Amino acid sequence: MLRQASRLLSRSVTAASSKSVTARAFSTELPSTVDSTFVESWKKVAPNMDPPQTPSSFMKPRPSTASSIPTKLTVNFVLPYASELSGKEVDMVIIPATTGQMGVLPGHVPTIAELKPGIMSVHEGTDIKKYFVSSGFAFLHANSVADIIAVEAVPLENIDASQVQKGLADFTQKLASASTDLEKAEAQIGVEVHSAMNAALSG
Amino acid sequence: MASSAAVPFWRAAGMTYITYSNICANLVRKCLKEPFKAESMNREKVHFSLSKWADGKPQKPGFFFFFTLLPV
Fold this sequence. Notes:
The complex is a heterodimer of chains A (203) and B (72).
Chain A: H1 2-16, H2 36-45, H3 55-58, E1 73-78, E2 83-90, E3 92-97, E4 100-104, E5 111-115, E6 118-124, E7 127-133, E8 136-140, E9 145-150, E10 153-155, H4 161-177, H5 181-202
Parallel strand pairs in A: 1-9
Antiparallel strand pairs in A: 1-2, 3-4, 3-6, 5-8, 6-7, 7-10, 8-9
Helix pairs in contact in A: 4-5
Chain B: H1 9-12, H2 17-30, H3 34-43, E1 46-50, E2 53-54, E3 57-58, E4 63-67
Antiparallel strand pairs in B: 1-4, 2-3
């Protein structure tokens, strides 16, 4: 009976207090992810100290998913040195995922996609903006927000076709003559990146 | 139970994702047209200071240099 007492007490305290995330006056107001047996044994051993908090108690609740699919996709496209697009509302983006070109529309299933070197295009009405992305990740959230992060992304006009051809020839040759696993992997990466750039420039 | 998912070739060769990603980014930067290439090299400059130690003391006060490209 006494075992239940602290749980019942904390339940009534939580119900009475406001539901704001920042108001955390008593340790008994922890969200239901708290392990009540642990808290009780803690109180027996150290009644004057608050039980330690866990990372989940610091987490903010997820932004709610709209009940109807929004008409526009909000895109945040960031690079380590610049924020290319920030909160831009677009119709569709096509991202070069490792599993192939993936079209993202508003209301897309929440996905985390690893990107391969390739073209990312942002479609806004009749406007299409293309970037060549070196690699990165795309996080598609349930509320139609897409966070795309890349290490290097350049508009296609900034790529020099002759250097791409030269690089492709170089790395193809290195791949043929590579000996260790690591050299082979590096040469293979070179071939992939340069073929992707080639395809991007000509396609 | 399957032993493992198909690993990418670079992971199989012992490379981490960060190394792979940095190599890709460097290759793309090397293929840029002129003003953009110089800007990106500037941006990605890393300043190093390397000192060799012997008997608990640095041998030289340290020699300074900087890398603009990963040794690929």
